Amino acid sequence: MDTLAIIARNEAMRQSRKIIKKILIYRLFYWIASSNYDVILLAMVENWSTKATPRRNDTNINLQATKKKSNE
């Protein structure tokens, strides 16, 4: 094989990989959009963002206040 044939073959392989990748990405997005997974993921993210996680100092203050109340 001469050099031009090798270059042409490599370019054709690169183009076909690019097309296959594009098709797979579109299929993935179509699958997500056509299912309820996007709704479930949004609900999970919303739940995580609204969940109040106490900081360590707040927890220590609450524990100390509880101990004081129980001693009184």
From TrEMBL:
Keywords: Membrane, Oxidoreductase, Transmembrane, Transmembrane helix. It is an enzyme of class 1 (oxidoreductase). It comes from the Bacteria. The chain crosses the membrane at residues 24-45. One of its GO terms (molecular function) is glycerol-3-phosphate dehydrogenase [NAD(P)+] activity. Its EC number is 1.1.1.94. This is NAD(P)H-dependent glycerol-3-phosphate dehydrogenase.
